[in-house]
Specification:
CATH superfamily of the largest domain: ATPase, nucleotide binding domain
Structural class: alpha/beta
Strand order of the largest sheet: 3-2-1-4-5
Distance between the termini: 14 Å
Shape: globular
Largest sheet: 5 strands, mixed
Order of helices and strands: EEEHEHEHEEEHHEHEH
Strand content: 25-35%
CATH architecture of the largest domain: 2-Layer Sandwich
Oligomer: single chain
Number of strands: 10
């Protein structure tokens, strides 16, 4: 079975343990005539998939107890992947969600790491530079570029650790590997959303 997580800018495909990150046009060109089970946060791309592909939308099968109306289907799938824990998706937006007892307990949404970088540039031309990620968060850095990086990462890590309460911590997303390197015993995997999709399909089969 081929699975797809359709985002606003890319389509992520999972087949036989392999994950592909493709532009929308490339994904439809290469996989449009194959049966692909997908979820989508992009209505525009979903409408195109209906017209141009054999793909099947399984969003209605991604049911997370306690989820609120309007919660993104990709976040619901992520929270269904490994059981109880804190789930972080570090993409264009950064989401943090908590699952305890198999029930969604809330979360929060922040700008993604690169959105913070763009925000600094809007404050002052002096800050319009590429931030450097600090080697660790144990000491305050010296130098504007690394202080920008510290200012982005440190508050995010602090809030995630505050909510953790000895729960397992799972991280995904394009910047997930970077963020996970600052979080003790964090488990990074780019297959988490697909694992949640598989678990949801098994539960309704």
């Amino acid at each position: 079975m081929i699975l797809a997580d359709v985002g606003n800018r890319h389509i992520h495909l999972y087949e036989e343990g392999r994950v592909l990150h493709l532009e929308t046009d490339d994904a439809i060109e290469n996989f449009g005539e194959r049966i692909v089970h997908y979820i989508s946060v992009s209505q525009k791309t979903k409408e195109r998939l209906v017209r141009e592909s054999y793909w099947r939308d399984i969003s209605e099968k991604i049911s997370l107890p306690g989820a609120y109306e309007g919660m993104g289907v990709d976040r619901r799938a992520l929270c269904l992947s490994r059981g109880d824990g804190i789930y972080v998706d570090a993409g264009s937006a950064l989401t943090v969600d908590k699952v305890v007892g198999g029930v969604y307990r809330g979360g929060f949404i922040l700008p993604g790491l690169h959105a913070y970088r763009r925000a600094f540039a809007e404050i002052s031309p002096v800050l319009e530079r590429k931030s450097e990620w600090p080697a660790s968060l144990d000491a305050l850095p010296s130098g504007t570029a690394v202080q920008l990086g510290y200012g982005i990462i440190a508050p995010i890590v602090h809030e995630i650790e505050r909510l953790r309460e000895n729960l397992p911590l799972y991280v995904s997303g394009g910047d997930g590997r970077l963020l996970a390197s600052y979080l003790a015993e964090a488990i990074f995997s780019e297959t988490l959303v697909f694992e949640g999709m598989q678990n949801a399909l098994r539960s309704v089969s």
